[in-house]
Amino acid sequence: MKLLRNSRAARQGGFSLIELLLVIAILGLVVGAVFSQVGVAQQRLNAEEIKLDDFQQARDFVDQFFRDINQAGSPNIRMYDPTSAGFTQFATPYNTYDSRLAVGLVSIGTNAITFEGAVNGIGTVQSVTYKINGAGTCTYCLFRSQVDKANNTSPTAQGTNWGTEVNDVDLTKAIFRYFQYDGTEITSLPKDISTDAATIANVKTIQINLTIRNPNVIDQQTGLPIETTFEGEISLNNCSMASVGQPMSCQ
Questions:
Q1: Cys bridge to 117: 8, 72, 90, 220, which one at CB 3.0-4.6 A?
Q2: Helix, strand or coil for residue 63?
Q3: Residue 5 pLDDT > 60, yes or no?
């Protein structure tokens, strides 16, 4: 009986030191793998949150631009009888200096565009400009300016009132591209109404390619800066007063 009790006690003994170390090592590997995956998931979540914020910022800009550009060229001289409405007070083609009339597109460039239109919804003509570093305070920022059109003042000499629209814009890609009625892209930019009215009057479609890319915000998984791109295209609806005899978008 004594021998039996000793044998049973021996069988009920604990793990050896080697077994405990082996179990601890395995648990360490499992926990390490779990925390590693949690870290990767957190990095992806941070990257996706930044992309979502950038995408929302770009979409808000494009929506604002589309609302503005849809009013370009309205109201214009074709809506009035110029002989009875007193639109002959300024000796300029199509009365482009008259603050009651919007000339439509004023200037176009790869990273800047200016146009006139009643964008505030109450009929007052504004001069609107979108321009990289418009305020001269942020090299990679896209600014927007909106001011009431000044009377007896050239469309190319209107004032500005800048506000930031988009930060961290990638300047290696053109933001704005312009196409004529036949689909031909307009190159050799910039152009403006005072030096090339015929080309300005022929703009039918504007494409936008806005890329937000901050080199200081790195995707930890890829090791590359986080980049977000938003593209859009819009056709001009209103007439331009830029040049006599040019095809207009309202015809």
A1: 72
A2: helix
A3: no
